[in-house]
């Protein structure tokens, strides 16, 4: 039993109400893992991981039917995911895992709840609360949770599943937990032995993407980047994040910062199974260069001596992802990057191609030339109204 912590009532959780309505006090069903950890820490977890003593699939189907939801079965591990009622539930039969070789996916066989808890990554994730009110925990689990400490459950943990190294960093930085000294030593030994190279790049990429989405991703990357052969500068990352607008992707910007020195970056990102659109964005952003705030500037548009013309800033940054602009700003062109991101990229003309056609400009290159000239004039404060935009456009189109 959990002591000295009294297990809180699961029924208070939003995701637990439909669970109880569907399954009642089924004594074979246990809530496990991070949800229990967060609940005992005073949080309100959302989706729930469930372990069933016996076959989990009938329970999953029963739950899905009661919720009017859907069940997805993963045959290899005897697991299922149920979605319904606005929540998701991952169900697994209690099992034992063995590893044929370091970094391999585990072979599984049915086991007891106690054996299932012992296969987990860290002791604080090896606590289970049953629907009927009982509780079970692996050795050291309760003590480590009370002490806010991460400890592996056995000495071969990182060798069996090296992705646990990245999870160690993710949990330690997110929860602000200390790492138990023995576990810290095992992690160092595993990294030095090249444990992460025994895992498929796709599994490493999946863990890395989870890490990048954490609020504590900067601290986590500073810790884990060398393990992945990356060079991460937290100061550059913080400056870039300060520039990143709300419509930017924080996780992709941080990945770009970490990958700036990677040769053949697209190939590495493909191996990590980063989706194609995200891969291309990261490649562009990682190639960002800072330059100077006034490098290549034309004559100033106003009395602020040395300030780069808005049109020159636009020419430099237009078409680039906001993540690339933010990183360029962090590397040196902060004033120009901030001006583009906060102001200039939103500037739009009051005229369009139909206006030029109506004014007698022939279809073709002249339309684009005229609109580009009008936009430059507007950016530089030389076309304050629609008439001035038209004048600038027509002059360029007819040139």
Report on this model:
Residues 293-305 have low confidence and may be disordered. It contains 20 helices and eleven strands. It folds into three domains: 10-146, 2-Layer Sandwich (Beta Polymerase, domain 2); 230-344, no CATH class; 353-397, no CATH class. The longest helix is centred in the last third of the chain and has 15 residues, at 365-379. Helix 7 runs parallel beside helix 9 (201-212) and helix 13 runs antiparallel to helix 14. The strands form three sheets. Strands 3-4-5-2-1-8-9 form a seven-stranded mixed β-sheet. A two-stranded antiparallel ribbon has the order 6-7. 46% of the residues lie in helices and 12% in strands. By secondary structure, it is an alpha+beta fold. The protein is elongated. A hairpin with an 8-residue loop joins strand 6 and strand 7 (107-110). The chain has helices spanning 16-23, 34-40, 56-67, 113-118, 141-147, 157-160, 163-175, 181-192, 201-212, 217-224, 234-243, 250-258, 265-271, 276-286, 310-317, 322-330, 334-342, 353-358, 365-379, 386-397; strands at 29-32, 48-52, 70-74, 79-84, 87-93, 95-98, 107-110, 127-130, 135-137, 149-150, 178-179.
